Amino acid sequence: MPTDTLPRQLARTRRFALGTPTHPAVTADGTTVLFLRSHGGADPLTCLWALDTDTGEERLIVDPATLADPDGELPEAERIRRERARVAATGITAYSTDATGRLAAFALGGALWLADTTDGTVRAVPTATEVYDPRLDPAGRRIAYVGGGALRVAEADGSGDRALAEPEAEDVTYGVADHVAAESMSRTRAHWWSPDGTALLVARVDNRPVRRLYLADPANPQRPPRVIRYPLAGTANADVSLWLLGLDGGRTEVRWDRAAFEYVTAAGWDGHGPYAAVQTRDQRTVRTLAIEPDGSVRVLAEKRDEHWVELVPGLPLRTASGALVDSADHGDTRHLTVDGKPVTPAGLQLWEVLGTEGEQVLFTALDDPTETHLWVYEPVDGVRKLSDGTGVHTGTRHSGTLVLTTRSEGFPGGRTTVRRDGRPALRLTSYAEQPVLAARPELLRLGPRELRAALFLPTGHRPEDGPLPVLVDPYGGPAMQKVTTGGRWGDLVSQWFADQGFAVLVVDGRGTPGRGPRWDKTIHGDKATPALEDQVEGLHETARLRPGLLDLGRVGIRGWSYGGYLAALAVLRRPDVFHAAAAGAAPTDQRLYDTHWQERFLGHPDEHPERYDTCSLIADAPNLRRPLLLVHGLADDNVLPVHALRLSSALLAAGRPHEVLPLSNTSHSPTDETVAENLLLHELAFLRRSLGLS
Fold first, then answer.
1. Helix, strand or coil for residue 265?
2. Model pTM?
């Protein structure tokens, strides 16, 4: 491995995602595990592999480098899917299988391919259009895909390509998830096969009501601006409907009260028929619906909450007997429920449901906010933990074969183990690079709220070395934890900054997931005040616990996305505590983020304008008296560049000096190696200069 620094290695390895086994799937008989992985820790081209659970042998099934134009010009829908899913690799980034797992379909550069996972043969499937999100039917006879906004089906042998539903107008699509579903609901799919492969449940998305926005590329003015449909808070959403489409040309609309329940949060088709979950605009009510062949619906369950109903990834589902698998918040616990009854104990916080097999339910949950474990529920034995040891665990299970992925300190890409009944455990080979440094966080519980925190000190630091300047390095928001034993790549960044001479403090405050519904919903109506208070409290409590360690006269703060918002908020509202901030991709004007995410916490801006004013930063611009660096990707279609530009304009109008670093051709997550490496170096230089360290 080349000698390099952590910023360079992070950029080259796409944050250690390359060379790591991902997307495992177990075949129906449990004898094979399919997965994706590139050939090396700096190779972005992902291949399809198989592990034989009897012999432990790994086989390469598809190497995109051997196929024509493996990752050429992507269809726009596929480019957006990768952005929503934060996919950093190229090549085969997703695949679908038939019910047995013998056949796997995937798209490369808009072309459709089909692989036989048993003998390794791969062939192109001719299609009438470019291909997005191909899905094999359970019998392996046909492939459904999206092309040109239409939902199309082709026979597996390449014959009979035809459209089952075509867009009636521009900005109408079939089979493509709408923006808020993909970005804020964890629903990236929009078409689902029936178990017998004779029909599909398909989402129709009419984006015409959604406001049209334009993203230009100032570095390339000869290019026309990109047009996007983005539902700003308080404005119209896409009109999403569901349709039953038969291979015989039959077409039936699913009928529910779409005016009252405009969000489709989940859908699917199992042995008991098609189903969907729908949600009201205020997000306080979710209904699970059984869909009848004539398009009518039955309400299987309804959930209500005075703040919002939390959407748990993977729900709803049904067991083989038809029992509904869902979640319920009781007191301070988010429970897994089966047939309407909680089946997990108080204090075990449901995180994600991964699937069902028979009457068993596989899920992840936390009994400690810093660890996520893999669990199974069985009607006779109740819940049982399948993972052990510190870290963040997840997995999949079928026919007695368990694939367990564990991310822990020293393994930011994770380690994947395959366990099959009566056989020794196997390990999927990882080609991910080992980090050039080791993170050494000290996990803390701070203050009366027992804030979870991680403290990083320079390698070799001694108490007699004197107080250290402080860098607060949070995310601090409802989408993500940073303080875990999972050894994520962010720990390495915190340690790298520590090794530059800082005491780096990471605090997960109120609203950060993993501590139960009451904790989650303390930020309802105000995303700013509790989050900032907890960063201040965490800083002061750490100083109290480690007297003489922190130099509270030199405190910087950095962050990205919500963490960037929190960094800017800190220097604008608490300059007495924070002396410099580097804020990346910060949503500074809350009215300029999407409906589903923003209204969940702040309500509708027409009904609660004061909440949006309280949580936005534009009006705070005259208060700036500390150094502030604003960083934003000019191609960011999640947190739009207007956020940085409007705050910068307000700061300029108020006569407040600040710095702006625009990143050309960069979306919400920088992937260009040069940009990703030098961005960290630029932040370091800014913080050192601003805190008087250089």
1. strand
2. 0.96
